[in-house]
Amino acid sequence: MINRLSPPSRFIIAATAAAILSTWITPFQRDLFVGDETKYGQVVREMRATGAVFLPTLNGAPFTHKPPLHFWVVNMLTIPLGVYSTWAFVLPSLLAFLFLLWLMSKMGGPMAAFVCATSLMMWGSAQTARMDVSFTAFIVLGAWMLQQERLLAAGVAFGVATLIIVMAVIGFGRRSPGRRCGLRRRRPVRSTRAGSSRDRPPSSGR
Q1: Neighbours of 25 (CB within 10 A)
Q2: Alpha-carbon torsion 51, 65, 77, 34, what sign?
Q3: What is the distance between the alpha carbons of residues 64 and 79, in angstroms, rounded to a whole number?
Q4: pTM greater than 0.85 (yes/no)
Q5: What is the Rg, in whole angstroms, of the alpha carbon atoms belonging to the chain?
């Protein structure tokens, strides 16, 4: 099929393949980044240690910010790869990236896949231990199903994608409104003016 494509199409496919291959290099050269990646890694390690697969924990406390589906997948990958392997945590994003590019090529052709593969946000997220690429892939799948008027399949795809947002809302909902907005409730400040009645000495009664 490649020999039937025009030279520009061949170049686009080759550039897309190069972008895909480049995402498989960094797992060989790095550990999990401090932040979300190390936090998710600790969640999976505690899941393996305690066997609590339905209620993930972080430092012994329930971790309700994300649904357990992603951690189940990573937990299964740690069986052959180990709990300290970067590949076990990054592989879901890499596979979701391939799935997303396949969807884009089906919907918009090689150029759509090329634009998606070379997008800095998508290309960088494909190399992380986060859930962003998987979420995006299911959103695109739902849109494609809607385009084909397959409503049931679209609903399932959107349901899986929004499961991440729903769990995040439930997790953040336990915090106070000020904490959710990054604000802290301030205590009322008493007046310190010299003329304030609270600062005046008690009357002598004369």
Answers
A1: 10
A2: negative
A3: 24
A4: no
A5: 25
Burial class (CB in 10 A: 0-12, 13-18, 19+), 70: buried
Report the largest interatomic distance among the alpha carbons of the chain, rounded to a whole angstrom: 109
The burial of 156, by beta-carbon neighbours within 10 Å (0-12 exposed, 13-18 middle, 19 or more buried), is given as middle
Task: Name every residue whose Cβ is closer than 8 Å to that of residue 27 and which is 6 or more positions away in sequence.
Answer: 86, 87, 90, 91, 94, 127
Per-residue pLDDT of the chain (206 residues; tens, 9 = 90+): 444 556 678 899 999 999 999 999 988 889 999 898 999 999 999 998 888 888 889 999 998 888 888 899 999 999 999 988 999 999 999 999 999 999 999 999 999 999 999 999 999 999 999 999 999 999 999 999 999 999 999 999 998 887 765 554 444 444 433 444 344 444 544 544 444 444 455 555 54
Whose CA is closest to 21, among 123, 134, 156?
123
Length of the chain: 206
What is d(CA 124, CA 56) in angstroms, rounded to the nearest whole number?
Answer: 27
Residue type, 9: S
Listed by start position, the domains of the chain span 2-175
